[in-house]
Amino acid sequence: MRLLFPFATLLSSVVSQIFEPADFSVTEALLNQGVNVSALPELAGLVGRSSNLACHIACSSLEVVYGNKSVEFQDEVGYSTFTSSFWSGISAEVRPYCIFKPSSPAAVSVVVLLSRLSKCPFAVKSGGHSAFAGAATIEGGITVSFENMKGIELSDDKQTVAVQPGNVWGNVLTALSTTGVTVVSGRIGDIGVGGLTLGGGISFLTNAYGLACDNVASFDVSSLRNPTTSRSSNIDQIVTASGIMVTASPTTFPDLYWALRGGGNNFGIVTSFNLTTKPLDNDQIWGGTRTFTEDKFPDVIKAWMDLTFNSAQDPKAGSWVAWLDKGVKLASTELWYGAPAGNESAILAPFYNITAVADSTKTRGHASYVIDNEATNKYGLREVYYVISVKASYEIAQRSVDIFYDSIGALSAVEGAYPVLIWQHITDGSLKGSTRNGGSAMGFDANGSPIHIIQLACSWNNAADDDTVYQVMSDIMEAIKSDAVKLGVQNDWVYMNYAAMFQDVIASYGSDSKSKMKTVASKYDPKEVFQKLQPGYFKLDRAPVPDARYFSY
Ligand SMILES: Cc1cc2nc3c(=O)[nH]c(=O)nc-3n(C[C@H](O)[C@H](O)[C@H](O)COP(=O)(O)OP(=O)(O)OC[C@H]3O[C@@H](n4cnc5c(N)ncnc54)[C@H](O)[C@@H]3O)c2cc1C
Ligand SMILES: *C1O[C@H](CO)[C@@H](O)[C@H](O)[C@H]1NC(C)=O
Ligand SMILES: *[C@@H]1O[C@H](CO)[C@@H](O)[C@H](O)[C@H]1NC(C)=O
Ligand SMILES: *[C@@H]1O[C@H](CO)[C@@H](O)[C@H](O)[C@H]1NC(C)=O
Ligand SMILES: *[C@@H]1O[C@H](CO)[C@@H](O)[C@H](O)[C@H]1NC(C)=O
Ligand SMILES: *[C@@H]1O[C@H](CO)[C@@H](O)[C@H](O)[C@H]1NC(C)=O
Q: Residue 137 belongs to what domain range?
């Protein structure tokens, strides 16, 4: 049975701005992509009605069309290999009906259309580092794995690199490490290109260039015929709800381009990110962890806030702080610099003026640095993230540390509980970067004060303790937010990449941004496929798991 035809129609550019006419036929769209539904007996019977066999039929159809190797069912070894590849043990527990492994953008279109036809829901996984169930994999539905879409291709002029979503940042930086250019990436090697970029993306280069999503150029459809070879360029090739491929860039479908910068999985499936490269001699940057004890906390807070406020003096420098309690309270300060010998930079000097108990900072490759950091990224535990942002202020910074250490005793009965308070910053350079090419859906104020991201992470062992952990995390966030309001430094923006499933991230972007995002969605996805058939993660109108017991933003 020959079901696959050449994809010329699909890959030709879209001739109409109307993405989905009122009389849009899913079966016709599938036929246009070489899949004849009438030749798939079970599917033929399904058209026009729903069925609890929907996912059986959809998955079997994918297997008929793309072969046994492209689809894994629950009894297959490939299935458990896949499900155990999630970072969070909570995601690893999810049992999809099947795993689908497309090898081409066209196959991604087909799975969206088959989902529409069968009503079997789907989710897509890039690096699999989202923390909660249902974000990148779906109970009883089709989970799309991009493991056969790992193309990385640098353009001849080295200005852009086209990266498919099966890649994690370690692959991408390694591929670039000998080319004299790099990209605004994740800071731990096994984080995925897909989730990090669509949610924003803080990098070791962000204070200089902005977030990862602000450094995406465009997408070249024809360059992606062979997904396993490397390629180059900068934006998003996305599969929209009607299975049409478009290239969103500052000049083509700029509304969609804007919405994808912070919009997560609400607008389509990105099959290639065409990233703008940055020059970097011999891939050499500098960074590592400098760790301080409690007696030094006031100095650490001052040094970190000073860096946040003064970042424009030398945007190569950046830092996060992880506040820990390992029997002793510690401030584990990651310091980095986008060139060698950051230890000699004036802006980081105050951190060297504080006596440390450990220091791993050194000059090293950007690729090696993110891969070295994988050691801190243990798999298989239960995980939660929770986050707010505030306008940077010394007072709220100090309060957040106090509230954190005063509250975590409430987790003492939770086996394996390991809470961490993490500080990150959106400094002058990232605020300015966010306005490039029409700005992003997150709507930062380029001339506003620096933003302090105050984040909680916690891992623990047992599902029985989930509610306790969520409640303690929620209470800490609520207390810090309440103090931020009192101090007049509250800031609504919730960073998707670190948000809890109870947080309404899109609402936090503000009503203007949200309503514009909904307008964009109604144009590219009028039937709300990416809201309803792909129900996981941060949706346009709701938190992933709305729950009034817990802090939202
Ligand atoms: C250890 C660790 C380190 C981290 N470091 C950083 C960091 O340095 N900077 C930072 O900003 N964040 C960081 N994060 C947060 C990280 O950005 C988010 O967890 C992000 O969701 C991970 O992306 P992923 O592709 O690995 O996740 P996934 O779980 O695969 O994807 C997350 C969401 O994006 C959707 N998605 C993925 N790919 C696509 C696509 N191609 N098209 C449409 N939707 C897609 C998925 O469906 C899912 O809903 C870190 C997280 C962890 C756990
Ligand atoms: C990437 O974007 C650049 C700049 O817009 C463009 O010239 C190039 O063709 C794109 N490459 C791909 C593979 O889409
Ligand atoms: C689709 O399959 C049906 C049943 O096998 C066949 O009758 C029909 O001609 C096919 N249509 C196309 C366009 O190939
Ligand atoms: C599909 O492939 C798996 C191994 O990947 C094998 O165990 C199974 O028998 C195959 N199923 C069919 C129907 O060929
Ligand atoms: C910075 O680090 C380099 C390499 O480790 C070292 O040679 C240099 O002396 C250091 N500079 C300062 C000011 O500590
Ligand atoms: C280092 O500390 C000393 C003593 O507190 C202070 O005088 C000096 O200005 C500090 N230097 C930097 C770079 O912070």
A: 11-145
